[in-house]
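wait is this the right file?? whatever heres the structure
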């Protein structure tokens, strides 16, 4: 078992991310296989996972998206995206997405560490208002609440789960950096 202290959290630049599209896809496919509602349906293929991550590369190269990863023994086991809002009236805002920890590495604190790294990076960049959403009652929902995220509200029937059932989504926000406290 990999100890939390043996896991490195860092960002990947676009060149590094492109070289590791296969591992990134592994994590996304694993999440869908285990029933996570992360935009994709059952049967989600590895090639589609690679394509998803490849679509993030231009924004990562542009500096508008930061890809945080957890790595243990040279292998990626977790991801989190910090995506800056593009709108001229939202230079203080960012979205968080694809908070994923491989099923073999869960409940050892990696999700919390990735989220904390994302929040610190956002604050350092002056992005003081963070937004995300997740399936109500999911592991993500529990993680965000335990890390001080505030529920905005719930939308019934917002998205299909991989198994084809419609599920409710909860929207969250968190103030970080100068805007926190
Ligand atoms: C959500 C997810 C990233 C959490 O990662 P993780 O590394 O297991 O989380 P952590 O070990 O850091 O958990 C931190 C806290 O979150 C809460 N939590 C996390 N998973 C939980 C679960 N399955 N049930 C209840 N609480 C949970 C707990 O409070 C936990 O603290 P504790 O272990 O001391 O009780 C992981 O379960 C995952 O990848 N799920 C599938 C993808 C997904 O749904 N992502 C979120 C939406 S994009």
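ok assuming it is, sequence goes like this
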């Amino acid at each position: 078992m990999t100890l939390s202290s043996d896991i490195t959290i860092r960002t990947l630049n676009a060149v590094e991310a492109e070289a590791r599209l296969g591992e990134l896809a592994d994590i996304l496919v694993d999440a869908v296989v285990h029933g996570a509602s992360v935009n994709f349906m059952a049967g989600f293929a590895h090639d589609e996972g690679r394509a998803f991550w490849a679509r993030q590369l231009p924004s990562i190269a542009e500096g508008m998206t930061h890809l945080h990863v957890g790595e243990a023994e040279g292998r990626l086991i977790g991801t989190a995206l910090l995506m800056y809002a593009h709108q001229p009236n939202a230079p203080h805002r960012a979205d968080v997405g694809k908070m994923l920890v491989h099923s073999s590495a869960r409940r050892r604190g990696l999700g919390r560490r990735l989220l904390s790294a994302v929040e610190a990076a956002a604050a350092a960049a002056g992005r003081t208002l963070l937004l995300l959403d997740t399936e109500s009652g999911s592991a993500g929902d529990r993680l965000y609440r335990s890390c001080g995220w505030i529920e905005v509200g719930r939308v019934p029937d917002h998205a299909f789960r991989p198994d084809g059932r419609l599920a409710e989504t909860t929207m969250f926000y968190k103030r970080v950096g100068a805007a926190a406290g």
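Residues 31, 36, 38, 99-101, 106-112, 134, 138-140, 142-143, 146 surround coenzyme A (CB under 6 Å). so i think its the right one actually
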